[in-house]
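Quick one - inputs below.
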Amino acid sequence: MSGCREPVSWEALVDYWSRDLPAAEQEAIENHLFGCAACSAASAGVAAITEALRSEIPPLLTREALAVLRAGGLRIVENRMAPGERKQVPFPATADLLLHRLGGLDLSRASRVRFTLRVEGSDQPIVEIDDAPFDRESGAVLLACQHHFDVFPPDTVAEVRARDDSGAETVAEYTILHQYAG
Amino acid sequence: MRSAPEPAAACYRTRVLPDELADDELVRRIAGGGLDAGQAEEALCRRFAPRIRLYGLRHLRDEDRARDLVQTVLLGVIEACRAGRVQEADKVDRYVLGTCRNAAGRMRETEARTRPLEGEPDIAGPADTIEVIDRRRLTRCLAELESRAARVLMLSFQEERTAEEIAAQLAMAPGNVRVVRHRALAALRRCFDRAEEARS
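Output:
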């Protein structure tokens, strides 16, 4: 980095923006950043990404997170699906979020749920979460699609693997054929 | 009845900037109140506004509140410079940071936005915004990461978990979580920079 004899490292800037630093280290970094244009610019480069990540809605939601989004005024369209179902689902331009309720599951004794979203006809996962959040009460996983997911092919297969404490596993697949507006 | 706002700091009225001057020289020129004091104010604002904005984003977690912080802090600093209250001109960066910490603390305590008074200049103008990340590009870049790295980023930034909490959830060592996070963010940065290069 030009213009700084002792630049703050990438790792330190990431920890700083992760809000995962002891107070003393955080203060030391801030003391440096306020006096150093080069490191401040580097910090902005990290912040651009971390704050973009923070503003993203995660692909899987808890019931509580969904309630927060609703309370915040997000326009949400819901699509209920049963295991093995394959259907076309329009994503209207007037909605901010297309919420797929991947239901029909007995999650009452589930200890861990693994979720995978892949393009239909492909083994390549788009999203893969080993410890997926799930709604035990309603027996559903809540998949939240946003308009910018149209960067992926629209025909997708969601797989939910639920495991209980005894090690027994149940698997359900849902084939979602997204119809993005525009 | 609210009193009339202070005259706008000159940083918003002129466009000729002595950006090459050191901090202490800018402070001295502002305090001197000479013909070039206005340009010095503008240069000081341009220099510190992005840093205050970042501090605000980091601590107040909100773009609007960060902009308000820029406004509040710069007005306070400029007034202090004009009044000769910045004793150590070569350490004005520390003065700005101290003002930031105090103002952000007050904003957090009250949980109220300190909205600028009517008629005050907009210090935190569009030129100060940090790079806007394209959401489609972000989605693509995230999909290129290994699933564990993407999960660490999600837990870190969307669920605000510490490295220790993530380590417990994903059966990793906390140090390993940090390493994965460092590398994943570096990969995202490279992915964005590649896209920028391709565009230009």
